[in-house]
Amino acid sequence: MTKPTSTIRTDATQTDRSVRGTGPTLCLALRLWGYEESEVQSWIEELHALHGAATWRISRERTAHGADLIVHLVKPSRTRDAAFCWNCAGANYALAQSPVGAIEMVLFEGLADQLPSMRAGHWAAAGSLSPQAALGRLGHLVAAASTPRSDRRAVVRRNLLCMITRQLDAA
User: Domains of the chain (ranges plus CATH)?
Assistant: First the structure.
């Protein structure tokens, strides 16, 4: 019998070390497409366990004032072979109408081949991860890739966000 040498779990939503150390905390806002707010709110308590690297909140407002990153969390609203997903269409429209300077992305619960072919902005597929685990991983990656500004706020770098969305469920 063999014993794994790696203690890293792909479903983990937190680590034993701080991603950012003593740097500024990121504010990550969630816009929900197809999810019950109460369900996602229950996940937020665990997501806050990112050791001060990020705070999460659900936003009902379009601009999510004060957020460093807006994450549109999309649950597929179609079967695998159907041609249209209302939740994807809503999130895609929201990204296309994104205000200048806003940093937004979509986290899709599903596989990359289920994504709509025409997409605005950055989209990441959770793949085999649960939405909760994917949000935890996303929080760690975004916090690690952000840089502090002189006013002690963090900035999510767009070029790294593009790489993060491609690698979210990379094993």
Answer: 26-167 (3.40.50)
